[in-house]
């Protein structure tokens, strides 16, 4: 009788201990599978070309950003919207009217500026708004002045590629607001895409969207 | 025979107590200063003890902390709750010549690893513990406000 009881107690103890130990693991596994497979991640990578050669990688799940953003109420950011001082910052440009015009226009280049120091191009292509800015530099003489007839070389290049739906969502709030939250939501409905690419002498910056939870 | 039963009972209780204490994992803090006279601190605390220990922190001290963190508290609360959906992910990684920083989540634990010019700091905290702490601070802050 005693040996039966002891056996029973031992098996019960082992089973109970195993169950309690495995509970968190099972819970974790459950959470792991419950993490949606179509999670969208926003990645930022900055590679510095300085002596220290620093690399910064930030990976943010868009779902997380969407939930955190409305909780941040500081300065100009409230409820996921950024207030802009139209008169001072937009220099009288009616962004909404501009956006409406672009939305209803066929693909093409809208702005092309070729200046001495930089080239700027704004275009619409395949449902994306493209902004390309290239800064130029010229060889300088000993006096620090630009050499005559010097050929321009690329100093920095900025490429921005934003889905039109995201741009529309961004300007969907009031006249003096940018709806960042709506833009994030529009972005999360979008497929893998490269959003920003900046390359200059000091840094290489890349911002992109995909389903991986780690940067490449 | 009675002694054997007592021993079995004691061992069983101890085993249960151990399993219960460690069921939520451990909080781990490792600090190593790799230089002459540098300190080495290694702390392992069962995460299940933290919510209980929080009750022993005096209200005024906790309220002070809650006041400082008032703005960030709702944000941290949301992040902590959401982290459960991302059991394995690297959120921030900084790699320099002598500096490395990594903030990640693996198997439901938040890891902060810092290597700075030969000094190492590693912290690991279960997400559930962060939630418990935030909830506790929030509740105490609300109670303090109501009084």
What can you see in these coordinates?
The complex is a heterodimer of chains A (216) and B (147). Chain A is an alpha+beta fold and 216 residues long. Chain A has two domains: 1-34; 38-210, no CATH class. Chain A is built from six helices and eleven strands. In chain A, the strands form two sheets. Chain A has an eight-stranded antiparallel sheet. In chain A, strands 3-4-9 form a three-stranded antiparallel sheet. Chain A is globular. Chain B is α+β, with helices and mostly antiparallel strands and 147 residues long. Chain B has one domain (25-146). In chain B, 46% of the residues lie in helices and 32% in strands. A six-stranded antiparallel sheet of chain B has the order 2-1-6-5-4-3. In chain B, α3 packs across α5 (127-146) and α4 packs antiparallel against α5. Chain A binds chain B through residues 2, 6, 9, 13, 16-17, 20-21, 23-24, 27-28, 31-32, 34-36, 39, 51-61, 63-64, 67-68, 71-72, 74, 213-215, and chain B through 1, 8, 12, 15-16, 19-20, 23-25, 71, 74-75, 78-79, 82, 84-99, 107-108. β2 of chain A pairs antiparallel with β3 of chain B.
Summarize the structure.
Chain A is α+β, with helices and mostly antiparallel strands and 216 residues long. Chain A contains six helices and eleven strands. Chain B is globular, with a radius of gyration of 19 Å.
